[in-house]
Design goal:
Blueprint (H helix, E strand, L loop, with lengths): L2 E6 L7 H9 L4 E4 L8 E5 L2 E5 L12 E4 L4 E2 L1 H13 L7 E4 L3 E2 L2 H13 L12 H9 L6 H4 L2 H22 L7 H15 L3 E2 L1 H10 L4 E4 L23 H6 L10 E7 L2 E3 L12 H9 L12 E3 L1 E2 H11 L3 E5 L9 E10 L2 E3 L6 H5 L1 E9 L16 H14 L2 E6 L7 E3 L4
Parallel strand pairs: 1-10, 1-11, 2-5, 2-10, 5-7, 6-8, 7-9, 11-15, 14-16, 15-19
Antiparallel strand pairs: 3-4, 12-13, 16-17, 16-18, 19-20
The structure holds guanosine-5'-diphosphate, 6-O-phosphoryl inosine monophosphate (IMO) and magnesium ion.
């Protein structure tokens, strides 16, 4: 039995989908525990490319059980559409379940996500506009609607009536928008309810049974540590807990089952949306990384901001997640760069900071302190063993291990499942 949590160690899009798909070959169960369709996980399997938003990346392994945990917020129309699209491509949903405790993203959440962003003169978060934040707000405010409520029309109506009254007041009186109609929403959701009903289950029980039976379980993180509502660059974060702890609360599994936490980090840094990015490169090098790494969002298509690898960021993630292993992805994107920079600390006025500060005002004054390493002037995309990598690439990996205090057990040298170097048993 092994229970492995896969999380993002930077600001998202590190290649969690690829790493999960790779590890899913040996896993009986794959579970998503937080976030929603703000996530975009790309999995390339031979000729086929899949862009998954809500469905776990283990779905391409026909034998594994794929679960959506209680911590995920679900846009029903989106998940059903994703299921239909994947089914048309021959993907099986025989072993797939959605938690009866997961919260729903309702139409007013999506409208409010956009209106709230528009209303912010400065400090727009740059959300994905999928209603994620407002859905989690309602969950914490105890007015959220859960999958189990949807299964019972009377209960759904009762809850919707209370919350819709509040939301319509907000929409009309504060934002001057149109109110939403209760009856048409009930009719729409009752149709969706019947389509989703066959998948609904108590997923915590399924996970417990699998773990008790000695099966391998993989927790697929979405977003990333520095987008975490508690540990990220608040307020430029998402509204869930993408750190390893969130995988447990979001799936109903206790910490004693977990064997490993794999932090996925890109060989450089990217961020989509607003907020601090200390090593951001707004020059030709930044553009070169964006083009070579195809750094455009999987969900919104926005160009990702690019910069050098920031060891302060990843070391922080090693600490707050209890990372046992790092997966370093996209090393091939650095091919042919003569000199590669690594941020080792920040200069903040006359202080040198080795930890990411909490206050954004302090962060804004931080300038990265770089170390420079020689690059490798060859193509590494066909390397399959650590020893096949040029010495400069091996040294870069070793230096990141030193700076982040974690061992790099997986190195990805291309988007394909096979373009992976494994240095440890999983
Ligand atoms: P996720 O959100 O963490 O799952 O990452 P995304 O799928 O949003 O973005 C990662 C992108 O990098 C995807 O297009 C992957 O196909 C691609 N990718 C993953 N690993 C590698 C790698 O080692 N090399 C290259 N060149 N691309 C990679
Ligand atoms: P994956 O799982 C990168 C960012 C958004 C925005 C902030 C808040 O593919 O790594 P939200 O819509 O969540 O309220 O937006 O978080 N964001 C992501 N950035 N990858 C993601 O997911 C993201 N999910 C949200 O761009 O800055
Ligand atoms: Mg992504």
């Amino acid at each position: 039995m092994s229970a492995i949590i896969v999380i993002g160690a930077q600001w998202g899009d590190e290649g969690k989908g690829k790493v999960t798909d790779f590890l899913a070959e040996k896993s009986e169960v794959v579970v998503r525990s937080q976030g929603g369709n703000n996530a975009g996980h790309t999995v390339i399997n031979g000729e086929e490319e899949y862009k998954l938003h809500l469905i776990p990346s283990g779905i391409l392994n026909p034998k594994s059980l794929n679960l959506i945990g209680n911590g995920v917020v679900i846009d029903l129309a989106v998940i059903l559409d994703e299921i239909d699209c994947l089914k048309r491509r021959g993907v099986s949903f025989e072993h797939f379940h959605i938690s009866d405790r997961a919260h729903l993203i309702m139409p007013y959440h999506k409208i409010l996500d956009t209106l709230e962003e528009q209303a912010k003169a400065d400090g727009k978060i740059g959300t994905t506009g999928r209603g994620i934040g407002p859905a989690y707000v309602d969950k914490v405010n105890r007015v959220g609607i859960r999958v189990c409520d949807l299964m019972d029309e009377k209960e759904f109506r009762r809850k919707l009536q209370i919350v819709l009254e509040q939301k319509n007041t907000l929409l009309t009186k504060v934002y001057g928008a149109d109110p939403l109609d209760m009856e048409s929403m009930v009719a729409e959701f009752m149709v969706l309810a019947e389509r989703v009903r066959p998948f609904v289950a108590d997923t915590s029980v399924l996970l417990y049974d699998a773990l008790k039976a000695g099966q391998n379980v993989l927790f697929e993180g979405a977003q990333a540590t520095h987008l975490d509502i508690d540990h990220g660059t608040y307020p430029f974060v998402t509204s869930s807990n993408p750190i390893a702890g969130g995988a447990l609360t979001g799936s109903g599994v206790g910490p004693t089952w977990v064997d490993k936490v794999i932090g996925v980090a890109k060989s450089y840094t990217t961020r989509v949306g607003n907020g601090p990015l200390p090593t951001e490169l707004e020059d030709d090098m930044g553009e070169a990384l964006r083009q070579k790494g195809h750094e455009f969002g999987t969900t919104t298509g926005r160009p990702r901001r690019c910069g050098w690898f920031d060891a302060v960021v990843v070391r922080y993630s090693v600490r707050v997640n209890g990372i046992t292993d790092l997966a370093l992805t996209k090393l091939d994107v650095l091919d042919g760069i003569e000199e590669i920079k690594l941020c080792v600390a920040y200069q903040c006025g006359d202080k040198i900071l080795k930890e990411f500060p909490a206050a954004l005002s302090e962060m804004e004054q931080c300038r990265p302190i770089y170390e420079t390493m020689p690059g490798w002037m060859c193509d590494i995309s066909s390397c399959r063993k650590f020893e096949d990598l040029p010495k400069e690439a091996q040294d870069y990996i070793a230096r990141i291990e030193e700076l982040t205090d974690a061992k790099i057990s997986i190195v990805a040298v291309g988007p394909e499942r096979t373009q992976t170097i494994i240095r440890s048993d999983f």
